[in-house]
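Extended Data, panel c. Modelled sequence:
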Amino acid sequence: MANTPQSKKRARQIERRTDVNKARRSRIRTFIRKVEEAIASGNAEAAALALKTAQPELMRGVTKGVVHKNTASRKVSRLAARVKALSAN
């Protein structure tokens, strides 16, 4: 339990940041899910559009420290490959 005023303040700050980060992570997952749903539906145009909107959101998570840079790049790369394979068919 926090005892000093500084540690109490840090606990409050961490609580607020946790809520913000949780919301941002959830938002990123939603964008990724939209891309995956578009891929599953077989609509190449919708999948490409969804990927185009998801990519900046993922990279914004990187700059905010919610997701690691390599993790975001890997997810974007794999999604892009799936969208590309869908449009090739």
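Residues 26 and 85 are 27 Å apart (CA to CA). This feature is highlighted in the accompanying rendering.
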